[in-house]
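Researcher: Here's the sequence for the chain we discussed earlier.
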Amino acid sequence: MSDPVIALEGLSKVFAARRGRGFGQPSAEVRAVDEVSFAVGRKETLALVGESGCGKSTTGRLILRLIEPSAGRILFEGRDIAKASPREMHGIRRHLQIIFQDPFGSLSPRRTIAEIIAEPMDAQGMIKSDAQRRQMVGELLERVGLAPEQMNRLPRQFSGGQRQRIGIARAIGVNPSFVVADEPVSALDVSVQAQIVNLMQDLQQSQGLSYLFISHDLAVVRHIADRVAVMYLGRIVEEGPKTQIFAAPQHPYTQALLSAAPEADASKRKQRIILSGDVPSPTDIPSGCAFRTRCPLAQEICAAERPPLREVAPGQRAACHFAAPNPIPVAAKASVPAPVA
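Model: Thanks. This is the structure I predict for it:
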């Protein structure tokens, strides 16, 4: 990718999990995001998928500097903003926005829709008069499929889908180039989900937006994404074009995720892959490959060496010792070898 809007290089975030008595040091650490690297191109949608708690939302908030990174670089149009000052970030935030998961909790119940939508534009000095505010808010409401006459209402007077449209209007009002969409349709009915996804795609084309689309719904991801990155315990385990990921997943975790996704066409349904064991504690991530305790292919090398995220097909990368091309031969031919402890 020659000219990405956002590029992450070794981005990490470590949280203190517990603290001892008094002023002692943290007794445990959580590596919520562990050396994540990927890029998002212009007018592209990269979907970040994985189980709950894998670090997807934390990654999105790190990009926007809502959470401070522990290590790594965040390149916005080639400029590293990981250590940008608050003054510098104020101007940059106009170009980086977020659509929150909860359309109810993300809107202040005491403020009108006009006040909510205008707040980012006021903060960036884009509004000079009350007349201009009403005009800009009205235009944004029309753009997301709502009536300008509704701008003086409160959020409680709107449905969940309408509230998410208001959240989208707030995000695009400052003309951003990159938007983190954090599970933007997970709290909505299926029929409303389709409307919001279509709206986001229309806005992407009209405003040239790039999206990081965080989701666990693979059906929605298949519809909206250009590329997919799969996350497990804070690490990217596979990344590539949507068509390749869905047609030929190379990592065992990706294969298990896709096998669990519902398929309307019975002829295309895959055999369900049931993973053994539980997700390890983020305070005690296994050595080597973090997925090895649940992987049917796990061998000694998986505990000894962390597999690099390497190219396994044109444009497709996977972090597995046994992924093609040039996989390490599987020693045991049993269909489900015992996982390495």
